[in-house]
Design a protein that fits this description.
Oligomer: homodimer
Strand content of chain A: 5-15%
Number of helices of chain A: 13
Shape of chain A: globular
CATH superfamily of the largest domain in chain A: P-loop containing nucleotide triphosphate hydrolases
Number of strands of chain A: 9
Largest sheet of chain A: 7 strands, parallel
Helix content of chain A: 40-55%
CATH topology of the largest domain in chain A: Rossmann fold
Structural class of chain A: alpha/beta
């Protein structure tokens, strides 16, 4: 049985091995992602983003527990967690969060956890995250939680992979945050004020509500899209992720948003956009690979030297090289 | 006189106009960047990065003032500030910081300030930042300070544009920071503990020193490269950017690092790598543009629909399309 079949059969060790191949972008990994593609398209992909220190990891832990052992009528779901750390491109190391989590959720076969670090390639992280998400989808996980650290371009790129995007804020992170978050907020389907037991939580909640109102609907294409099934106005939910208080409502909001996307037809639309982006990236890579096979490293280096000497301009070099 | 010539002649209005063309990636903008290329390669490019709330903007203000009116023997330098906000890809808006700054430094023809927001394209921000930096270099600014907000992939990409990278930390930003910053720290040539008058500053300084030691030299290719001229060990400098305390030593460290790069030959090496990256991006764009002109939007959409239906796999589609 090859790796792909083992993954489809539910073999965890095979899954972990395959994900390593995918992260390394090996030929085996690429072929497997392609082979598994027909089995994808069933998972609900949820992106969780926010500044460092907002408590995303413990929120993701509690959410996972809530989806595994719901307190209310919701049926349990299998959960895969992808923790992405875009700030470690050089070390290739990932946060230790997965170990801590492992202890907490270990022994549950309905949970799978994977940490990823960027390998430094331009846009490489979004591509490999997309591939990892697809493999987990094919492996049958119903809910895929993609957790990203930071507040930059990579988070936005990763948000594009998700059906539902959650932005986590916490009180007292400095006022600069408010200005910075404007762009990220526009991608949010659900807003969370974590550490809601701390001073300033009401202020944070108020500014988030204000920002949503400001962004509604003229400034944004994703927030509050009116559909025949009505409009989704991103809820602002409070929680204390260390104790788990408020996490149930967030889990419910995720389910509600999934239902909303399905009923409104937006799910299919996001799926279309997602696959179009994936295709664009693959075409780009294929074009570069083909070009690479036609040009030698020596040739490229010669031209870079001429650029260094300013004896040729970049466009002259491009013209000569392709 | 065309835009390019006006920029070379020191026309500020022409410079601002050209930068807009460059940001919009227009044909005029592209041609101008290429036309100005032979005039580039003189500026010292300094990247300033760090989490939100660490006070980067006021540090950049004080640094600019210090370079314009040095307290010691250093000759004054002309300064261009590029403030990059990678988290606003949807709004296209930039931080208001430039207005505040303008008031402070206005009237000085030796200072030019530009705010940039991402336009949402994968890697687009690094490309347009590189182009803007080149134009400012050609326009004759001796020092270019590129300030980025956040802690993600885009910051690292932008760090690659810089000769000297400064990472700014502040006390009391939560312990998660320490883990996250490991990757960013490896890019740092100078480390700054801002808000050094606040409690916890000593702790922050201590952990930074510890991380440098840990990263030296086996874990990193950039930190502490031994050369015939010796080794650069990233200094950890304290400052209070609201009052300007400690800013002079940071300005001096920037000058020292520039001298070190020149003497050790690393300046040329970084220049080579920078131009190689630029070339790779341009080749990539040219290949895609050529492909785009050969394939219709209808064809692409047809294939994306087949992907949505799972009746073709991504690689089958790529094969069919190129």
């Amino acid at each position: 049985m090859d790796l792909t079949q083992s993954v489809l059969a539910g073999d965890r060790l095979a899954l972990a091995r395959l994900l390593t191949q995918v992260e390394n972008d090996s030929a085996v990994g690429r072929a497997a992602v392609d082979g598994l593609f027909p089995a994808t398209g069933k998972a609900h992909v949820v992106g969780i983003t926010g500044s460092p220190g907002t408590g995303k990891s413990s929120l993701v832990n509690h959410l996972t527990r809530s989806f595994r052992r719901p307190e209310d009528q919701r049926p349990p779901k299998t959960v895969a967690i992808v923790a992405v750390d875009p700030s470690s491109p050089f070390s290739g190391g990932a946060l230790l969060g997965d170990r801590v989590r492992m202890r907490d959720l270990s022994g549950d076969r309905g949970v799978f956890i994977r940490s990823m670090a960027s390998r430094g390639a331009l846009g490489g992280l979004s591509r490999s995250t997309a591939a990892v998400v697809n493999v987990l989808d094919a492996a049958g996980f119903e809910l895929i939680l993609v957790e990203t650290v930071g507040a930059g371009q990579s988070e936005v790129d990763i948000a594009r992979l998700a059906h539902t995007t959650i932005v986590v804020e916490a009180p007292g992170m400095g006022d600069e945050i408010q200005a910075i978050k404007a762009g990220i907020l526009e991608t949010a389907d659900i807003l969370v004020v974590n550490k809601a037991d701390r001073p300033g939580a009401e202020n944070t909640e108020r500014s988030l509500r204000l920002m949503i109102e400001m962004g509604h609907p003229a400034h944004s294409t994703r927030v509050a899209q009116p559909t025949p099934q009505g409009t989704w106005l991103p809820p602002v939910l409070r929680c204390v992720s260390t104790s788990g208080e408020g996490v149930e409502s967030i889990a419910q909001a995720i389910v509600d948003h999934g239902d909303y996307l399905q009923k409104s037809g937006l799910w299919r639309q996001r799926e279309y956009e997602r696959l179009k982006t994936t295709l664009a990236i693959l075409v780009q890579e294929a074009l570069i690979a083909r070009w690479r096979s036609q040009v030698s490293e020596d040739q490229i280096e010669e031209w870079v030297v001429r650029l260094c000497e300013r004896s040729a301009t970049p466009y002259e070099v491009v013209k000569a090289l392709i």
